[in-house]
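@channel anyone free to eyeball this complex?
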Amino acid sequence: MTRFTGTDVVCFRAERIVFEGLNFALEPGGALMLRGANGSGKSSLLRLMAGLSRPLSGTIAWNDTDIADDPEAHNRHFHYVGHADPVKPVLTVAENLAFWAAIRDRADTAGAVAEALERLGIGHLASVPGRFLSAGQKRRVNLARVLTAPADLWLLDEPQTALDSQASRSLDAAIADHRQQGGMVVMSSHAEAGLKDAAPLDLGDFQAQGNAESTGWAA
Amino acid sequence: MSGFVLVIRRDLHLAFRQGFESLMVVAFFVIAVLLFPLGVGPETNILARILPGVIWVAALLASMLSLERLFQTDYEDGSLELLALQPVALEVMVMAKVTAHWMTTGLPLIVAAPLLAVLMNMPADGLWALMAALVIGTPSLSLIGAIGAALILGSRRGGILLSLLVLPLYIPVLIFGASAVDAVLGGFSAKPQLLILSGLLVAALPLCPWAGAAALRQSME
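replying in thread with the prediction:
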């Protein structure tokens, strides 16, 4: 059975320890809801999980294999949605998504893109160039990217940013479907709504002792 | 389709949609070369003497102009992070982007250079040496430049920093590229210079994508 785990993870960033002694475990169908104040390390943890940065100590493992051992193999396991929405202004929405689907070895890219756009309610935007999109529409395109190719784990960094309530519901439905099929989700969010029976993980509980005094940063 | 081909196709697609960026590089190259007869004077023997060097220096500057954008736009809109998170090695991604960069800037320079050479009264036997040196030399320029383009990500005034980082590394290509043409014009064989240029390219091919990918990882930490 697929397992995504973190053991005693310490995150070091901008000359301070952001959090330490953090453990988590995810199994198929599971979801993890990251909570915590601004600057408590929610985005940093998601970046660690994606392998964009490395923990100072501790391990993050996929099926008990450290993800740092083979980053390219780990990349196949997940989709990452960060703060930025990488939509190229000169390409149409469909062209933008077709590239990301194809690079994940998706066979029928056109079909996959059309279906993903429909599910997020932006099917009518398929032939619109990226430069004409609003912030919320770009966010929907970025989320549609996640649906164009299957991956076990979704790492979503505040995915509701700029979404209207209808799009939020589409996202919730997509996440529910994904978990139904044995997918896993890690999501940071300020909104209360969203994941049903997700395990909360409050990063405030893992703040380093004496952080503020030793480095002069506000805790 | 492999990730390598997909990234090349994407970058070419973007370059053509953005339109005239590669044409502007060629225009810069042509104008820079044409400034020399105006500055130095139209004596054909002086022009013929300095022309190989002038063409190479202008080619270095033109290729460097477009380098700043190699990773910058992808870095700013978050595409670079996502490219790094695909099941394709980042080194392969860098190689693909460099290849696309060379196809949109290096190739047009190679096409434009002989026309300029004829315009500036270069003897015909120098032309093939100039073409051969550019064909072997310009890929090295794109490769070496990729390291600099990756290192400047996240810094302000990146363009000036880029030229400080990259231009010194271009010197070997400049020396052997220009002297290949000089040799032929002087009645010698250009073979040694072309072989050294090939050697530089063979060294740059594995080293530069590796170093560029390392710099990109650093910028995304």
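from a first look: The mean pLDDT of chain B is 91.
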